[in-house]
């Protein structure tokens, strides 16, 4: 696949995002380190603007659309986090955004998407094809389609998560042995792969996915993109996709280590751990990396680990369930 983003594109995105996106911290916890017998540094994108890393890619893409975006409008498909990122970036730039959003998306994500001024068009994720619906809207209205992970500028923007994490770790005099990434369509994973492999060529990058939705893991084993089981519900809604992105798959092919899979219960246990021990609000899909570490899915004794906490947009009832209250 041609015209894939490079490290220079990630650097350009970082310049573009300066003063707009939050440089999120690396969070450590002695209890977690003791439990895994290693050193874990969690990139807290739950503290990012709009509550997830998605603002980075959205802002980078929409800022480059500029006047054309204001003239034609923006359309995107998302279960919530990309939706919020697009909606807020569009608000900041005076662009009108329309989001194709599953009807069962978390209420909090719908409310915040609407709050930023976007128009929401709902669909049935189990019966309708969001890609087709989004493409049809773009063709009928002339709106610019900004895909959540099949977009050069979006991937470069997400890569700034890895850029910051690696640079901050280097400032501590450390080198990452493993980088665990919450994986859906693969935009975040692709961007992080570009940045992390530049800084730490030997780092092992692991996609982490919900049980029954491990299409990234299966695809990279097979060497070709394989569809996911979208008809099985999961609390990790933020990282459920029909198939790995073509661009992200091309970027990550041959670059990844073992994929890790966690259950919904393990993700919920990680949500509770983050709340009680890290004092962070993290949604299930954004906590799968922490879940993989807590459940021993990867042996990291004596190793230095980076892990994304990719989002914190969790509905109160789900948080209450995680905390058993």
List keywords for this structure.
325 residues, alpha/beta, Rossmann fold, 6-stranded mixed sheet, 4-stranded parallel sheet, 13 helices, 46% helix, 14% strand, globular
Short summary:
The chain has 2 domains: 7-53 and 152-323, 3-Layer(aba) Sandwich (Rossmann fold), CATH 3.40.50; 54-145, Rossmann fold. It is 46% helix and 14% strand. It has helices at residues 7-17, 30-36, 54-72, 81-93, 107-115, 130-141, 152-171, 187-199, 215-222, 246-252, 264-278, 288-294, 316-323; strands at 26-27, 39-44, 74-77, 97-102, 119-123, 144-145, 178-182, 204-210, 260-262, 304-309.
Main beta-sheet strand count, sense and barrel state:
6 strands, mixed
Beta fraction of the residues? 5-15%
What is the CATH class of the largest domain? Answer: Alpha Beta
Q: Biggest sheet, strands in spatial order?
A: 1-2-10-7-8-9
Query: Remind me, CATH topology of the largest domain?
Result: Rossmann fold
How many β-strands, per DSSP?
10
User: Which class of secondary structure composition applies to the elements?
Assistant: alpha/beta
The domain count comes to 2
């Amino acid at each position: 696949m041609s015209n894939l983003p490079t490290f220079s594109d990630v650097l350009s995105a970082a310049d573009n995002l300066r003063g707009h996106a939050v440089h999120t911290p690396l969070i450590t916890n002695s209890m977690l380190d003791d439990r895994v017998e290693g050193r874990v540094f969690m990139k807290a994108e739950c503290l990012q603007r709009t509550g997830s890393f998605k603002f980075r890619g959205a802002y980078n893409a929409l800022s480059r659309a500029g006047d054309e975006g204001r003239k034609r409008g923006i359309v995107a498909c998302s279960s919530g986090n990309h939706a919020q990122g697009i909606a807020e970036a569009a608000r900041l730039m005076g662009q009108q955004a329309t989001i194709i959003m599953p009807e069962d998306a978390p209420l909090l994500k719908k409310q915040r998407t609407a709050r930023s001024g976007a128009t929401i068009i709902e669909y049935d994720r189990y019966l309708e094809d969001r890609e087709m619906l989004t493409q049809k809207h773009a063709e009928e209205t002339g709106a610019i389609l900004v895909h959540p992970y099949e977009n050069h500028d979006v991937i470069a923007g997400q890569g700034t998560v890895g850029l910051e994490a690696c640079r901050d770790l280097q400032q501590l005099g450390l080198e990452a042995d493993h980088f665990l990434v919450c994986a859906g369509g693969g935009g975040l994973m692709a961007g992080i792969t570009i940045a992390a492999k530049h800084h730490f060529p030997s780092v092992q990058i692991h996609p982490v996915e919900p049980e029954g939705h491990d299409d990234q893991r299966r695809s990279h084993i097979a060497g070709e993109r394989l569809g996911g089981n979208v008809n099985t519900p999961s609390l990790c809604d933020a990282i459920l996709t029909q198939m790995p992105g073509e661009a992200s798959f091309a970027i990550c092919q041959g670059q990844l280590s073992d994929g890790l899979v966690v259950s919904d219960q393990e993700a919920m246990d990680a949500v509770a751990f983050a709340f009680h021990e890290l004092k962070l609000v993290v949604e299930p899909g954004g906590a799968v990396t922490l879940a993989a570490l807590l459940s021993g899915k990867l042996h990291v004794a004596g190793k230095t680990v980076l892990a994304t906490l990719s989002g914190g947009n969790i509905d109160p009832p789900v948080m209450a369930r995680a905390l058993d209250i």
